[in-house]
Amino acid sequence: MSLDDDFKLSPELELEQIISLQRAEKVSGLSADSWKRHHADKIIEMSPRRRGVRLRDALMISRQQSA
């Protein structure tokens, strides 16, 4: 049994996790280029070469796209 099996985030904290832009593309349906052009304020620079987005933002964008 690994430590990951024992540890679960609450739903509120789970939405605050930072996901990669590649995963955000899949969740939201937007390309990484669209994220950079239209939602640059939501992109978090984790290191000089890594960028991510909060899961709640990716889910909110996907909801707006489907409405």
Can you tell me about this structure?
This protein is of the alpha+beta class. It has one domain (15-66). Helix content is 52%, strand content 15%. It has a 3-stranded antiparallel beta sheet. A hairpin with a 5-residue loop joins strand 2 and strand 3 (51-54). Helix 3 (21-28) packs parallel to helix 5. It is globular, with a radius of gyration of 13 Å.
Q: What structural class is derived from the secondary structure elements?
A: alpha+beta
Please provide the count of β strands: 3
**Strand order across the largest sheet:** 1-3-2
Poorly predicted runs are none
Give the CA-CA distance, first to last residue: 42 Å
The helix count comes to 5
**Domains counted in the coordinates: how many?**
1
Major sheet size, sense and barrel closure: 3 strands, antiparallel
What's the shape? globular
Question: What is the element layout, followed by pairings?
Answer:
Layout: H1 3-6, H2 11-14, E1 18-20, H3 21-28, H4 32-38, E2 43-45, E3 51-54, H5 55-66
Antiparallel strand pairs: 1-3, 2-3
Helix pairs in contact: 3-5
Question: Can you give me a brief rundown of this structure?
Answer:
The protein is α+β, with helices and mostly antiparallel strands and 67 residues long.
Quick tags:
3-stranded antiparallel beta sheet, 67 residues, 52% helix, single chain, alpha+beta
